[in-house]
Amino acid sequence: MRAAVLHEIGQDKLEVLDDVEAVGFGPGKVRVRVRATGLCHSDLSAMNGVLPQPAPFVPGHEGAGEILDVGEGVRNLKPGDRVVLCWLPACGACPACKRGQTELCLAGFMNAGTPNFKRPGGDVFGFAGTGTFTEEVVVDAGCAVPIPDDVPFDIAALIGCGVTTGLGAALNTADLEAGSSVAVIGCGGVGISAIMGAQLKGAAEIVAVDPVASRREAALRFGATRAVSPDELAEAKQQVTAGEGFDYVFEVVGRSATARTAYENTRRGGTLVVVGAGAMDDFLQLNMFELFFDEKRILPSMYGGGDVLRSYERTIALWRAGRIDLAGLITHRVPLAEINEALDQMRTGTALRTCIEI
């Protein structure tokens, strides 16, 4: 079957091959025909080594498709079911799950060390235990979440990561108050989803911050009240908050420099929500006096900071009701054979989300 493979960490191009085989099917597993997948910045981060991932591997973790086959013991799925792929399934039995913090379950991460594919030359891993830049993938049954028939595959794919992460950061992690002031630093697909979440919660002012003009324009369509370049953030802070700082600032880039900027633009007693996934050797520096004196809350948000299955259901309900625009997030579409074009679209910031049609 066809899949896009990164041979070595640090390479900037994927090779689309026809000799890849999905492996691991058996009890508790399902085989999924991938129909659509989004390109998330985390895929690029895994390719360049910012996020740890063994290679060679098939990137992609934001996908949707249909069940081809189910292994022994799988009761809630059957061939033909439409599913969204969840890269962070909850086991239901670990301490984190028992506390209700299912987004902190490590079961999904354990899958990342087991090859999902093979080629004549050897094993191939799937990014984050999935790997959706492929025609078929075998995953644990818990990674395949049924979706209603009226949810298109491209919309479902977005729900699998970016939308759930961004919306959840605002709705779950921040749980921001109506009438508050908000800044979102980084306005790709996840940042735009955070903007939609802030609008849903009734934020009075939402300032989108991004160096790319097209993304700033998109942010205004999705609910931002103003959009500025990073150089214009100080002026926006002065105009919106009289220089005090925003009630909530969302960092959706994953770099210590932007996290520091976010901290400095959060008011005393305000909330900084860290959404971007960064490198293990990129350290955010805070001095002990400011940490104590400013009493700013720093809240990391992992996969939207809430129960993933409930978040999926909520997102579908909001989409059906017309409260959020998911189709508008898809600015580009390419076939799997042109996956490297999609990578370029993300690197240059020209795409909010590119849908890879398989």
Protein architecture, described:
- Helices cover 29% and strands 26% of the residues.
- The chain contains twelve helices and 19 strands.
- The chain has helices at 41-47, 95-98, 107-111, 153-159, 162-174, 189-200, 213-221, 233-241, 256-264, 288-294, 308-320, 339-348; strands at residues 3-5, 15-17, 21-22, 29-38, 57-58, 62-70, 82-85, 117-119, 122-126, 136-140, 144-146, 181-185, 205-209, 226-228, 246-251, 266-274, 297-300, 330-335, 353-357.
- Strands 4, 6, 7, 10, 11, 18 and 19 form a seven-stranded mixed β-sheet that branches. The chain has a six-stranded parallel β-sheet with strand order 14-13-12-15-16-17, sandwiched between helices. A four-stranded mixed β-sheet has the order 3-8-9-5, with no helix packed on it.
- It starts with a strand and ends with a strand.
- The model has no long low-confidence stretch (mean pLDDT 96).
Which descriptors apply to this entry?
single chain, globular, 12 helices, alpha/beta, seven-stranded mixed sheet, six-stranded parallel sheet, 358 residues
